[in-house]
Amino acid sequence: xxxxxxxxxxxxxxxxxxxxxxxxxxxxxxxxxxxxxxxxxxxxxxxxxxxxxxxxxxxxxxxxxxxxxxxxxxxxxxxxxxxxxxxxxxxxxxxxxxxxxxxxxxxxxxxxxxxxxxxxxxxxxxxxxxxxxxxxxxxxxxxxxxxxxxxxxxxxxxxxxxxxxxxxxxxxxxxxxxxxxxxxxxxxxxxxx
Length: 193
Prior knowledge:
Largest sheet: none
Number of strands: 0
Helix content: over 70%
Mean pLDDT: 81
Oligomer: single chain
Number of helices: 9
Distance between the termini: 106 Å
Low-confidence stretches: none
């Protein structure tokens, strides 16, 4: 029985080796048949990887150059060369630099940057004591100073003796907000009103 088992074992080994050689020949034939396409695909992949890396490098260098120019503009707002670099390399930083320079000089501020535009509207609403504009700004979900705008709205309402509306506005401020202490102080004042 041992000899029979050995013969079966040898047969199985030969069969598995044949299958291996057969699959190897199939792969070789496939490669020969599609050799040009495979090499072209590999070439395109290598070129694409190099292009992406070069593009990333160029973008990183532009960001570094824009940041250096932005720092120079912060130190000297009259540095026209740095402003031109910013204008070419980073439109957002350029707009931010113009915004900062104009706000330092109390000039009219017009910007395309969403958050700065909202802050500008908020600042103007506070200066004009415009409750409606404060209400509009505070209703935007992603406004940076949402709770602070609500607090200022309530404060303006309290100054106009609209105590009930002020109390309702303060209810919109969450208890975990950083404005909560101010809210509590104003609520304390409004208890007697």
